[in-house]
Amino acid sequence: MRNGSGRAPLGRKVIAPVLATGVLAVGAHLGLNTNLFGGDEVCGGLVSTDAAAAVFPSSGRVSDREGLDSRPGDRLAFTCTVESSSFLPGSDTEHLRISGTRERGDFPFTDDGRWPSPAKVSFFSGGGTGAVGDDHGWVLLPGTCTTAADGPAIIEGYAPEGSDPATLARLLTAVANNAAERVGCGGNGALVPPGALATPPEPQRPEKGVVCGLAGLAFPGPNGQGAAQETVQDAPGPTWACDVPGYAIYAVTQEPRIIEAIRSSPGYEEQPRLVGRQVSGFDPHHVVADCAGTPTYFSLELGQKYHDAVGAPGTPRIQELFDTFVEAVGKRFGCSAPTS
């Protein structure tokens, strides 16, 4: 409709540019701050953008910058950094690092500064085997992906602070399935992420004269001294662990997939008998014993406070600590005293 002067109403001339500007702004927002116009996968197809986006605490556009970095000769060895970026004011770019590596089967219980203490993570098993904690997690690939030369394969992830552990576990499980399918070692069915995760235990003040809640376990330090706190992983399940900060980390597991990974690792061999038991492992303090027909792994990692106290009155020797540990915790796992 035109007015008497033959010109379009002024309102229509004003609204059209405003609408156009609004459409451009919405399009720019969707393109720069969301994945609406992005691809479905990153990291060479191993990572779903939707699954990765769910891990990031804040919304943004997901990309993988340099893409997948694979190691020649092993398609299960790779790294990829996924980032979530946004041009919204006050937004920071967040990063999610995902990698595939070969590890010694008892890696969750060794203290090389890379893995969270086994007493402070949420383990899961059944359809898939892994653990998450401190924005860091891992999932074990099927045993059919293990090689005699390099051992078991895992998918590992470092997520931004504040990420949901269960969401991270689902993502890592999905990546593990994709990686196994790509290589052709998926076995008999896909890994299944945990439906729920046990809450990691909080540090607590130990009962006087008792270490890790185990009667008969010697304190890993000078006589008469004790730790101010300790963390005990005692949730229902096949894995138990205790962290005495600075002194020692004790761990036991009967989780079948972890035991399989341990036994199929390079360097796994027979070890000296342990309190009368025949054992195999990697050294005298990382071993597998038979407990009422169930293979059971025992581990002792010692901290700097223990090493500083070596030679002080009453400080137990390493083998004494390990022997008393196996005796004390073994009762919980069906490890009766061996018969002569």
What do these coordinates show?
By secondary structure, the protein is α+β, with helices and mostly antiparallel strands. A hairpin with a 5-residue loop joins strand 11 and strand 12. Helix 2 packs antiparallel against helix 3. The longest helix is centred in the N-terminal third of the chain and has 24 residues.
Using brief descriptors, characterize the structure shown.
seven-stranded antiparallel beta sheet; 17 strands; 340 residues; eight-stranded antiparallel beta sheet; Secreted protein; single chain; alpha+beta; globular
Helix content: 10-25%
Shape annotation: globular
Give the CA-CA distance, first to last residue. 106 Å
Biggest beta-sheet profile: 8 strands, antiparallel
Order of helices and strands: HEEHEEEEEEEEHEEEHEEEEHH
Protein name: Secreted protein
